[in-house]
## 1
Amino acid sequence: MSVTPESVQQLLSSDDYGDRLRGVNQLRELDPAIAFEMIQPATNDPNVRVRYAAVSQVSSLGEQDRQVALELLRDRLLNDPEADVKAAAADSLGALHLTEAYPELEQIYQESSEWLVKFSILAALGELGDLRAFDLLKQGLSASTELEQTAAISALGELGDPRAVSLLIPFATNPDWQIRYRVVQALHRLGTSEAQTTLEQLTRDEVVQVAQEAKNSLSTM
């Protein structure tokens, strides 16, 4: 059975949340302009799984109208009661590079007690590439979970501000090799002489993956 706007709308209008969820997923098979119009009400669906799926998909459909996407995602980031929907909104804002939402991302990072929301915001800030995020990412390096710290390290690399190098160097000796691995990738992106010195040290890391990544990084600097 072929997927049409009419068949998808029938699913989206169903009283059964499973049908509505299928409808959101089938929007991928429609023209993006049509799909973006149809997905908008689903971002405010009463069922959390439907909202999550819709908000996540705005990351690919939002280019159809960036202003509308900004308003939808900003609303879910600020007002959704569920942490995973807030996190999906942050992810989509980052994917669409909607720097206009930076103040709200910072606000929710400071207010939220949910590690998933904080993690997603830190990761989104790297994609946004907005230098206003530097101080917030610096704060993220002191987060209570290693996942948040890892996201902050990666995001500082993506941001490209050379001030990050001195903040990242202490993590080059972190006991968690996955954090050291992320440090290698971030320092490679930042590319300063100080970063290069630390990468040379990391070529002798006891974990093969870290040492090899450091060698690969140096070979392309």
## 2
Amino acid sequence: MLTLHHLNNSRSQRILWLLEELGVEYKIEFYQRDSKTNLAPDSLRAVHPLGRSPVLTTPHGAIAESGAIVEYLVRHHATDAFSVPQDPEALQQYWFWLHFAEGSLMPPLVANLVLEKARQKGSKPFFIKPITNKLIDGILNAYYGPNLAQSLRYVESYLSKNTWFAGDAPSGADVQMIFPLESLVASGRAKDFTAIQGYVKRVHAREAYKAALEKGGEYAYA
């Protein structure tokens, strides 16, 4: 039996979607973020030393990291309709988007969110605030902002010509890409990217995704 250790408002929601798409029998162990720190509870460390979600308990042990979990599930439980693409060009796109999601898209996205939250929170004493805000703006404008904008333009261009990220059907690449894209849409950062918005709506309309939402509970990005 597979067990998904599921944290509210986290990347583990996309693993729920994949499990539902594959029709795999599984259990869910629920965890809640700390109301003050927004971090995962210490109890997750008993499952995996990193104490982060998602973690999937399998007959072969506990496995962490979304990409690794996606690859494990697709390798062991793939169906004809949700598997690794066989077409060489689609397979190359599959590999790229599977790793682009966390390797290129998420780092500047998270950095932007953290730095902007730090700016809103302000500094003490008050006369330091203009200095810290200027520093934050400098970092965002010089690096994280342009990187995120470039990635979004690239994704938008690709989705304007393709329904899914790797071939004519959804795959593990879509599972990886949905989390950053739906968080961008939910936060309003994708308001000028119609192809990204349409993609997120397509995923959210799938019956397996709806079932995953029903089972997973609170999820701010849907």
